[in-house]
Amino acid sequence: MAFETETLDRSRGGMWPWLGQRVTAVLVIVTIMVHLLLTHYIAIGELSFDNIGARLAGGAVLVNDMVLLVAVVYHALNGLRMVVLDWGLSSSGGRRVFAVVLWLVGIVAVVYGIWALWVWVS
Q1: How many whole angstroms separate alpha carbon 25 and alpha carbon 71?
Q2: What is the pTM of this model?
Q3: Domains of the chain with bracketed CATH
């Protein structure tokens, strides 16, 4: 029983971030494979601004790249959070501030990434 409570303890990361890390790892692997398949095998052709814009306008590549973007950002920032918690960020206030900073960085990164992808479409 002590093992279960230690695994789910929020000071060591918590269950939901742990599960999110595993889910996003699978998403990253799958979406990278789909990205490579769509980019290098299905849409073979010249890599130009117009060609890439046409691929992204098709929808499948755009949706895949957005899912990849969100999964990579969450996975990376959650991994950073876990490393910092392992190093011993002990105060609950410090953990809370660090989590808010990571969420803000993640939201900014995702919004910027979606904006950058959207430029190709419009």
Answers
A1: 8
A2: 0.81
A3: 2-121 (1.20.1300)
Residue pLDDT tens, the chain, 122 long: 455 555 555 555 678 888 999 999 999 999 999 988 887 877 667 777 777 788 888 788 889 999 999 999 999 999 999 888 888 777 778 888 999 999 999 999 999 999 988 877 66
Residue 30: Cβ within 10 Å count? 14
Whole-angstrom Cα distance, residue 15 to residue 8? 5
Q: What's the Cα-to-Cα distance from 67 to each of 28, 44, 45, 109, rounded to whole Å? A: 8, 22, 24, 13
Q: Residue 61, class by beta-carbon neighbours within 10 Å (0-12 exposed, 13-18 middle, 19+ buried)?
A: buried
Q: What is the 3-state secondary structure (H, E, C) of the chain?
A: CHHHHHHHCHHHCCHHHHHHHHHHHHHHHHHHHHHHHHHHHHCCCCCCHHHHHHHHHCCHHHHHHHHHHHHHHHHHHHHHHHHHHHHCCCCHHHHHHHHHHHHHHHHHHHHHHHHHHHHHHC
